[in-house]
Amino acid sequence: MKLHRNAALSLKKRELLVSRVLDENWSLTKAAAAAEVSERTAGKWVKRFVADGQAALLDRSSAPKHVHNRTDERRIQVIACLRRLRMTGSEIAEVLRMPGTTVSGILTRIGMGKLGRLGLEPAQSYERKRPGELVHVDVKKLGRIEGGAGKRWRGGHSHYNRSFTDAAGRRRNTVGWEYVHVAVDDATRLAYVEVLGDEKAKTAIGFLGRAVRFFRRHGIRVERVLTDNGSAYRSTIHALACRILGLKHLRTRPHRPQTNGKAERFIRTMLSGWAYGAIYSSSRERTAALDGWLWRYNHQRPHGSLGRKPPSARLAELNNLLGSYN
Q1: 195: helix, coil or strand?
Q2: pLDDT digits over 182-235, tens only?
Q3: How far does CA 247 lie from the centroid of its chain?
Q4: Structural element, H or E, at residue 27
């Protein structure tokens, strides 16, 4: 029951009112005066009790039983079908020539107010059982910081990204990019990250070797690596490096970055917590802040998919379950 602050009759007061009239033979006028309500109100509750019993003393819904202009059920099914095609509310309203507010209300009522993954293939999540069984590798390109904080802090266009026209007539920037190479263990989410100058095959191979040694220091023997189809990972020398390191190299399906979803999700977390989580005056300052953030991620930050545990705790837990892991 939802009572406003000036309500005279709670459920107990209604029961008392009915009892006085029916059991104690009070007059309706006297019972209404004792309850501080009108005789009409008192009679209403007595009649409801006589007709339907104790349950009738509860509040009834104020919604009308019949709405004459309610949207036809077949039209609602059409709206749902169009929503599964990932059409927005305004697009559905335009196609069906209906008010946008009506379509929005219907979508909310049938639980389709947010697109989410409607109409898409269901997400197929997986998790390896052993640390090192699969390591996700990816690269994120970040613009260098020169001359102080850029447009994310100042707003608008960058104030320092000078450009020039080369001999071929192409506009080129003078600041350039940094490349953040990441490696994430599938079972534990333990991560290793380096900021490097490019994403060429030799650079990717050097990072992979250092990542393997990092995981080895934590008692993890890497068996497989999963990358996208970038040129560095398709190169012959990268294949030779994987063979020398004893790694099986897997690649994602073309145009399917979600296959490497754990690396993609880690990059999102890294960008919000480190790259864009503070104001840096230079790229060097931003790179220097990475080690501290990464240590916290690996050893302190609760991870939603690990039962609110950090990756290091998950590693210790799996090692205890599997015995001594070499």
Answers
A1: strand
A2: 999 999 999 999 999 999 999 999 999 999 999 999 999 999 999 999 999 999
A3: 32
A4: none
Cβ neighbours of residue 120 under 8 Å, at least 6 residues apart? 86
- Residue 278 corresponds to which tokens in the numbers above? 């503070």
Nearest alpha carbon to residue 106 among 91, 119, 89: 89
Query: What value does the mean pLDDT of the chain take?
Result: 87
Q: Specify the residue for token string 């029951």.
A: 1
In this structure, which topology does domain 135-322 adopt according to CATH? Nucleotidyltransferase; domain 5 (3.30.420)
Question: What are the domain boundaries of the chain?
Answer: 11-57, 64-122, 135-322
Paired strand residues for 225: 135, 249
Residue 152 scores a pLDDT above 70: no
CA–CA gap between residue 258 and residue 33 (Å, rounded): 71
* 3-state SS class at 103: helix
Helices (H), the chain: 11-22, 28-35, 39-52, 73-84, 89-96, 100-109, 151-154, 201-217, 231-234, 236-245, 261-270, 283-288, 290-299, 311-322
Helix (H, G, I), strand (E, B) or coil at 193: strand
Length of the chain: 326
Do the Cβ atoms of 153 and 279 come closer than 8 Å? Answer: yes
pLDDT digits (tens, 9 = 90+) for 153-186: 556 555 555 666 777 777 766 678 999 999 999 9
DSSP string over 130-190: STTS-EEEEEEEEEPP-SS--HHHH-SS-SS--EEE-TTS-EEESS-EEEEEEEEETTT--
Provide CB contacts within 8 A for 86, sequence distance 6+.
115, 118, 119, 120
pTM (global) more than 0.70: no
